[in-house]
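Hey, resending since the last one bounced:
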Amino acid sequence: MRTRPSARAGQYTALLAYLIFLAFPFLWLLSTAFKPPRELGSLHPTWIPRHPTLANFRQAFDEQPLLHAALNSLLAALGAAVIAVLIATPMAYVMARHRTRLARAASGWVVVSQAFPFVLIIIPLFLVLKRLRLIDSLAGLTLVYVVWSLPFALWMLVGYVRAVPVELEEAAAVDGAGRLRTLVSVTAPLLAPGIAATALFAFITAWNEFFFALVLLKSPGNRTLPVVLTHFIGAEGVADLGPLAAAAFLATLPSLVVFALLQRRITGGLTAGAVKS
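The structure tokens again:
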């Protein structure tokens, strides 16, 4: 069926409005980062700074260890994404190929676990990490991120595995390949777009996470970037708006760069996970 011109125009209008809605916070953040203090306090704010300056960026780096905090966030996020994908891929394969009662119960538990709020688990989680002597360490924080992102990663990868034709695995079995060889040589390459999409979501979730990092990390040298950003807000709740916007703008760049680099694989992965063979 052909779409009417009026309906197509309405679709494009709605899409444009949605894009503006998504881009507004980032564009306003970018504008604020380059404004001098006089323009930040103006009663008539403008989109484009009249006198753009880099002073906010210099002040942000002088006041807080942004590079060190970014490195901590990068290590924790990359570690969580890699470990979560390595664990979730074989688990998703088993759940997708062997649809037993246990597999259905595990799938239900994955969905239910996403409804648990952070506050509900932070106390037992803190006690477990304390017993393991992982409080105030990037290793402990990475472990928490793995556990937290694993259900979502597993849920995504199950759909991708089901999109891979079973006939390919049966042909590999006829040629003498075992389960592990089939998973590594046949299924895993076809899952590459889905694995890339899952790893990206796990990375972004860990990169932007604030609550666990605030509770579990105490030493200044172990703090992640979201925690350091809160230090631009004074004791009375007054924010140093220029440096805060500059630091927040820099904090969004890594996830945008990773998303741009993996855009094609992510699109293919999302499409593959939504289609059944």
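The chain has a mean pLDDT of 82.

Sorry for the duplicate.
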